[in-house]
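Sequence, please.
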């Protein structure tokens, strides 16, 4: 049964991503950061391996059964809740970021700085959701290999967000710097920063 839930949640997440990704097709940006750095290459390799592990879980479960974790059913269900939460948050985030969204690090023509909704207290809510969602599906699958890849995915997002922030400071200067003081990178700041 968890395999079916896994396929459903993963497909829903993919549909949301593909929909918003398709909105960016054919658009020309004003500035673009190169993504041929070691961080992005590392992220791509981890994501590809993660997908390979997931497809093996769905299509060839015997291949990956050695990494099965004996997780309590409550933990697996909490993965389902987290994944559903992640999908809801992803829609909200994409909706708020609107045309500023890009699969690469880019500045669009007439790029607006977004500081509302999910961006009010968190600068990279989309990356937070990616990390949350990959951990959630690892819990649903109860698989060590998928869990390890989910943890590995979190590392390059740390580097990429720093690079993204440098680009946004370049573009918005003081305005972004003061936004940074009011917000946290992946989670809301624990203490008020002002
Ligand atoms: N890192 C963000 C956005 C990911 S999409 C998140 O995790 O939610 C990547 C694009 O979003 C980049 O090309 C960048 O130009 C844009 N971006 C990131 N933060 C932004 C903000 N606060 N306002 C407007 N655009 C932003």
């Amino acid at each position: 049964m968890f395999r079916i839930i896994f396929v459903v949640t993963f497909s829903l997440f993919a549909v949301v991503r593909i929909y918003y990704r398709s909105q960016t097709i054919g658009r020309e940006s004003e500035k673009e950061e190169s993504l041929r750095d070691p961080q992005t290459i590392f992220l791509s390799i981890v994501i590809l391996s993660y997908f390979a592990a997931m497809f093996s879980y769905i299509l060839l479960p015997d291949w990956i059964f050695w990494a099965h974790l004996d997780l309590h059913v409550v933990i697996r269900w909490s993965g389902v809740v987290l994944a559903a939460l992640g999908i809801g948050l992803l829609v909200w985030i994409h909706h708020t970021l609107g045309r500023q969204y890009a699969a690469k690090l880019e500045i669009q023509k007439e790029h607006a700085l977004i500081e509302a909704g999910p961006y009010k207290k968190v600068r990279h809510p989309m990356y937070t959701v990616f990390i949350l969602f990959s951990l959630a599906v690892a819990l649903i699958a109860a698989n060590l290999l998928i869990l390890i890849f989910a943890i590995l995915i979190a590392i390059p997002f740390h580097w990429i967000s720093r690079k993204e922030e440098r680009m946004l400071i370049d573009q918005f200067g003081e305005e972004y710097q003061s936004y940074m003081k009011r917000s946290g990178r992946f989670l809301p700041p624990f203490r008020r920063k002002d």
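Residues 93, 100-102, 105-107, 113-114, 119, 124-127, 161, 164, 168 surround S-adenosyl-L-homocysteine (CB under 6 Å).
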